[in-house]
From TrEMBL:
Protein name (record): YopX family protein
InterPro entries (UniProt xref): YopX-like_C, YopX_protein
Domain named YopX protein: residues: 6-133
Superkingdom as given in the UniProt entry: Bacteria
């Protein structure tokens, strides 16, 4: 089964049709002419002795498209009726949810289902367009 994903290398986004292999701590992909191991370790929640030296981050497609047919990925910034949300994995709900851009990881969040996805518009993502998060935060303050 193909798992569409994208990888942020610290400078630009790379879109892939599938990951090559998955281990407990790493995911492997082919990127240009090199095999890349991406750590699944979340340094914000846990500490460990050795950290990866590169900023590679893996984001899977969420299995939904927006109102224009654009595939939605983890960490996308979406807009609906003038409000901006961030798409994030929600372990408590075993799926993806929308979080307010200035309160990622905190309530209120909304579970992302197919009907909600069809009302959203992807306007960017947290890594390539952090300015969209700042704009929203400043408007809320």
């Amino acid at each position: 089964m193909k798992t569409p994903c994208r990888i942020w290398d610290g400078f630009r986004m790379h879109y892939l049709n599938d990951v090559q292999f998955e281990l407990d701590e790493y995911v492997g992909v082919w990127l240009d002419d090199a095999a890349v191991l991406i750590s699944r370790f979340d340094s914000r929640r846990n500490r460990r002795r050795f950290e990866p030296t590169s900023p590679w981050q893996l984001m899977h497609a969420v299995g939904q498209t927006d109102r224009h047919g654009t595939t939605m990925y983890d960490r996308d910034i979406v807009e609906c009726e003038g409000r901006r949300w961030v798409v994030r994995l929600d372990a408590e709900r075993c799926g993806y949810s929308l979080f307010l851009t200035y309160a990622i990881g905190l309530a209120p969040s909304v579970f992302l289902d197919r009907s909600l996805a069809r009302s959203l518009t992807v306007i960017g993502n947290c890594l390539e367009n952090p300015d969209l998060l700042l704009e929203t935060f400043c408007q809320a303050a």
